[in-house]
Amino acid sequence: MDGPKSANIVDINIAERELEQAHKLGAKCLFVGDKDYPQPLAATSDAPPILYVLGNIGLLKRQSIAIVGARNASASGIKLTKKIAKELGEQHIVVTSGLARGIDTAAHSVTVNTGTIACLAGGINIIYPQENTELYNAIAKNGLIVSEMPPNIKPQARHFPRRNRIISGLSSGVLVVEAAARSGSLITARFAADQGRDIYAVPGSPLDPRSAGTNQLIKDGAVLVRSSDDIIQELSVFTDSSMTRSTTVSSQEKSTNNAAIKPQEALPELMQLLSQHPTHIDEIVRLSGKSANDVLTELQLMELEGKIIRHSGSQFSLNQ
Prior knowledge:
Strand order of the largest sheet: 1-2-6-5-4-3-7-8-9
CATH topology of the largest domain: Rossmann fold
């Protein structure tokens, strides 16, 4: 019987050489556990032990939405991507993508000055595709370039799926604009689902193969997106929820008689409106007759207690 396989240990000389190369490029190395390592990514099950970053690492502290899609994107897809990305940037939301042709390029191009993160499949100094050299330089100066690969590593096919998990891991949600039935963008969406991120998708014509993937995502429960408002509304739901919960906890600490503890008493009533099938927050609010803030607070408490499950698209179900 074969014994356990030994782990591959990187030679110390190779590791030092890679760190020196990164330093010469002006890049920084972030290790899991570092204060600057992005916490949303660190919380995923397959977080890269090291990230090479070039540019403004402060962007890693801001909320991000990933935008991905077809390389052979349509003119309308490019136009809508630029509009949505620009509007997200104006709301201080970072746009993350993969510097690929088509949708990725469109998303980066309008958010260089408001905040964009480009995740590379190869080394941080390897520009792919070459046609995006000018865009790469602009992002390196004003945005952020990220890779888990050491400098000088040329991207190979197997690197791109791994790159995609970083794109989704850095983000609160992933917007897919155009994607064929089998595409890298859908791989990113699958990573997002596994990581508990929200998935957004722009619908398209059933006759356009570039919309087959996005239409299927919507059928499977992704949030249908027509404009940036559809994304911002979903993000604000949980921002408001977190703020409401913080206020509630603070009030509870001040006085056990404070009215902030009332949502806890109302949990059984709200649970009667839920089932094992996901229900959208708007429907729960309508059925309960309560204010949106009260419902959000109650749902947050139940989620923390493990009684319910939050799904993509602001939907909830019983945890049974």
